[in-house]
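Figure 2 data, in text form.
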Amino acid sequence: MSRLASEEEKRKKAIFEGMSARSKKKILDKGYDNWNPFLQPNDPIDIRVDQGRHTAWELAKNFLQTRSHEEYSNDYGQGVWEICTGIISDKDRYRAMYEFSCWYRDLFKNDKPVKSQNWDGKVKSSRCKARKS
């Protein structure tokens, strides 16, 4: 750790003196000189971004806004969130779900070139494109 300026050293000592005995002991065990109370926090895990720099939250929100409220439930929204974060994190489980969904949709292309059936039997436009590995 680089040497702290005298002003920061005073703040460090004041922070240390204000701590409980147990916290002070933990710091002293690791070494007071190695302790830096001014470290920046890590980025939150929920800030996951795709290749286009969209966050998982933005993508899920934008997708759900294309659906009417009558069209989805809490489980539907949870599923969107899970697959969104799974695909962005490049997890095999969610990539497999995506690829299977595209494959399943393509089964209907011969009969219905651009349309496929929704879970409830309604015909919907399909925008699923094959993902390149």
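Caption note: Residues 43-90 form one domain.
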